[in-house]
Specification:
heterodimer; A: mainly alpha; two-stranded antiparallel ribbon; 1% strand; B: alpha/beta; nine-stranded mixed beta sheet; 10 helices; 11 strands; 40% helix
């Protein structure tokens, strides 16, 4: 009896620790990047850091302007959204609403395999196959550019959006559809007037999480975006997203130098962006649960 | 099963202890350009010297020197000479960096094989990288925008090229910054209008190395001090090397060591 009680206590604590470990990791990571990143603001004001147009971290005197890097990240992400949103939401709609069981049994695992391919493989594909193609097709001087990164990131984010969107669609209660059909609505009307609006917040959560994946992706953009720290004027320009900068330069920046701290400061900025995205996704998905009467 | 685990554990422990007792250990850290040399030499050195354990870590030249100053490594690999600021920092920590030249390297300027350009002057290379010249037709080639490819600003190869070829001028902002010698070589190989620079060890048939000031980038020209963009590769130690560190440095400088350096694709000292 007592042994059982102790056992229960032990298990309870064990799982509590496991559950809270992610909180420890998060605070740990946040603390480290803030401690290592903030010293750079002794060298450069945060305004000049964010809005400076020149990224020359190793020159004398160094210049730490990350505006080209921020814009590089955003261009690539926005380009990726043009690809992953229609593809992801479209395939989720098809899988959930139109596919017969056999098609669903094939499509769903296929999408999941797409999500499991390592990003370096995608990057390699972009470098070796897509880059020469874009170069010839658009007559570009170089195929490593924002467009290339957008296409690859778009394909990478598609399965995530598809899977979350599909969940959202399957949460729409059957009774909603039945009610719509019983009022004489056809399939298309039911889909556009009932199913999509009621899954709306779930679908937007999918898009926001897809965005946060695209902006945080590193390996692929390091390989295919071109790496020029210049403010992009078109999708055919090479860009240097924030993540690629950190990945490329962290290995060669001596610990404790201003350059080292500046890379952590970029990480702070990136952390805040993805943090905001995740909070947005959380708020939106909460609204969605309440709307469907699923909230406790 | 239990017994098996015990034996395994004892085996591991005794192995760990024996390595602690017998092996002398030295740590090398720094430059990715010197890394292949350091790895190869370490491998052969450990075969010849069973009690020695040589650990080689990459990073950049700056990382290696910082690590030497902090006492975290015995030998700092560097593809550039130590900076004044680094010497000052070392002095304040009572570290005396001592340079050992272990090999020479030429930085070859490369273009796409289809490019008709055969050679450029240092001035022209500087104008290309700083943005004064941005079309191949101005250099006698076919009309087309020059795609400038460079290494990341923190790499030792970049710093050496920046100093030797550009006299420390800023590289144009829209240059494509690639993270490794190999990435530069493969981007140039796929981009007809590109120009880039790589260490001699990374030359292949898929890119064309051009002459600089009329001198082709070759082992002979680098060794004769004729090729203008060449540099020594260094290993830095804290003070005059002693013990195993001395043995290691001596081994690299020996004929056997220098032959290995040549095998990897760098220029051995004569």
């Amino acid at each position: 009896m007592i042994v059982g009680l102790i056992k229960e206590k032990v298990y309870c604590w064990l799982f509590r620790i496991l559950a809270f470990s992610s909180l420890f990791f998060l605070t740990g990571i946040a603390t480290v990047i803030f401690i290592e990143g903030i010293p750079v603001f002794k060298e450069v004001s945060w305004l000049n850091f964010i809005f400076g147009k020149e990224w020359y971290p190793t020159y004398e005197p160094p210049e730490f302007g990350i505006l080209p890097l921020i814009l590089g990240s955003f261009w690539v992400t926005i380009g990726a959204l043009f690809i992953c949103v229609p593809l992801g939401i479209g395939s989720a709609l098809y899988i959930n609403e139109l596919a017969n069981p056999l098609q669903r049994a094939i499509l769903k695992p296929l999408v999941e395999i797409l999500a499991g391919i390592p990003s370096v493989v995608y990057g390699f594909f972009g470098m070796v196959i897509l880059s020469p193609f874009l170069q010839r097709f658009f007559k570009l001087p170089v195929g490593l550019c924002a467009l290339n990164a957008s296409i690859i990131l778009g394909i990478m984010a598609t399965p995530f959006i598809c899977s979350i969107a599909e969940d959202a669609l399957s949460f729409v209660p059957r009774s909603f559809r039945e009610a719509s059909f019983s009022l004489g609505a056809n399939r298309w009307q039911t889909l556009t007037k009932v199913v999509i609006p009621s899954a709306g917040s779930g679908l937007s959560t999918a898009v926001i999480l897809g965005m946060s994946r695209a902006i945080g992706e590193t390996m692929t953009v390091l390989m295919v975006a071109g790496g020029a720290a210049v403010i992009p004027k078109s999708f055919f320009d090479p860009v240097r997203p924030m993540t690629a900068t950190i990945a490329a330069e962290m290995g060669e920046a001596p610990m404790g130098s201003a350059h080292y701290h500046s890379l952590f400061a970029i990480a702070i900025f990136l952390f805040l962006i993805t943090f905001v995205f995740n909070i947005l996704a959380e708020i939106v998905s909460k609204r969605f649960r309440i709307k469907l009467g699923l909230a406790g | 099963m239990n017994k098996f685990l015990k034996i395994l554990l004892i085996g591991f422990l005794s192995l760990a202890c024996s390595s602690l007792v017998y092996a002398e250990r030295i740590v090398l850290e720094g430059s990715t350009t010197v890394l292949p040399i350091a790895q190869k030499i370490a491998e052969v050195f450990m075969q010849r010297n069973k009690n020695a354990e040589v650990i080689v870590r990459g990073g950049g030249s700056g990382v290696g020197i910082a690590s030497l100053i902090d006492g975290n490594c015995d030998i700092a690999n560097s593809s550039r000479s130590i900076k004044d600021t680094e010497i000052q920092k070392a002095m304040s920590r009572k570290v005396e960096p001592k340079a050992h030249v272990i090999a020479m390297d030429g930085i070859a300027v490369v273009v796409h094989p289809s490019n008709p350009i055969k050679g450029l002057s240092k001035k022209q290379i500087k104008d290309i990288y700083t943005g004064k010249i941005s079309d191949w037709s101005l250099l006698g080639g076919e009309k087309g925008k020059i795609v400038v490819i460079s290494r990341d600003t923190a790499s030792g190869t970049y710093e050496a090229f920046n100093e030797l070829a550009l006299s420390k001028a800023k590289v144009r902002r829209d240059a494509l910054m690639q993270a490794s010698n190999q990435a530069v070589a493969s981007t140039v190989a796929k981009t007809p209008q590109a120009i880039g620079y790589v260490g001699l060890a990374y030359l292949s048939d898929s890119v064309k190395a051009i002459e600089v000031e009329g001198v082709p980038p070759k082992k002979e020209t680098v060794l004769a001090n004729k090729y203008p963009i060449s540099r020594p590769l260094f290993m830095y130690t804290n003070g005059t090397p002693r013990g195993l560190v001395k043995e290691f440095i001596d081994f690299i400088k020996s004929p056997v060591g220098q032959k290995l350096v040549e095998e990897i694709g760098y220029v051995g000292l004569k």
